[in-house]
Design a protein that fits this description.
binds coenzyme A; 23% helix; single chain; 165 residues; Aminopeptidase; 5-stranded mixed sheet; 2 domains; disordered N terminus; alpha+beta
């Protein structure tokens, strides 16, 4: 039988540098494969913001099982992360967008979302964010979804944080 399956997800490492315009010039790399990523660092960034408290090993599984993974590295450490789950054709959902605190406000978050969106082109893309970051995603043209429903595993946490009534 001849398979006409298309590999929509072709992991490859991209190397980019971008000179920042503030006091320090930051040279960073965008990586879209989990290979060689230190998940202790990923877990640290995500737990710092309370986005996820999973340990490094579990976090690695979470990212390995995602359709798109983006890591930004600078100074030999992970400074930004993001991922999307998707079928590669119709729908994608973005999660875990975070930039290490000392690197925030330099355009890294924008790069991460841009890189994810490129890899799920053609899909309907959904996400939910912390109430304080709602405006952020309007930069990419995200619209508020009037018909969204969710079942949260830890409902009381999300209620307290203002995600649901
Ligand atoms: C949200 C986050 C990823 C943004 O990363 P960043 O590198 O600081 O953002 P950038 O410098 O790329 O900013 C991109 C644009 O978004 C804007 N922006 C950044 N944070 C914003 C926010 N909370 N609300 C609205 N706009 C925001 C910036 O002003 C910038 O706009 P501009 O292009 O018009 O200047 C980062 O602040 C972070 O890690 N926050 C904590 C983790 C978190 O809550 N993540 C969101 C989970 S969904």
């Amino acid at each position: 039988m001849v398979s006409d399956a298309i590999d929509f997800h072709t992991p490859k490492e991209l190397t980019r540098t971008r000179m920042m315009t503030d006091m320090k010039n930051i040279e960073y790399r965008i990586i879209d494969t989990v290979d060689g990523i230190d998940f202790e660092e990923v877990a640290e960034i995500l737990s710092f913001y309370g986005l996820s408290n999973l340990d490094a090993k579990t976090q690695k599984t979470v990212f390995e099982n995602s359709y798109v993974t983006i890591f930004v590295k600078a100074d030999e450490k992970v400074i930004g992360v993001g991922r999307a789950i998707s079928d590669g054709i119709t729908h994608a959902s973005i999660f875990n967008i975070a930039v290490r605190d000392e690197y925030r406000g330099h355009g890294i978050g924008k790069v991460i979302v841009d890189e994810i969106l490129k890899r799920v082109e053609g899909c309907n893309v959904t996400l939910y964010t912390h109430p304080k970051h709602i405006g952020l995603y309007e930069h990419w043209g995200f619209k508020r979804l009037k018909t969204a429903y969710v079942i949260f595993h830890d409902e009381s946490h999300y209620k307290e944080a203002g995600f649901i009534d």
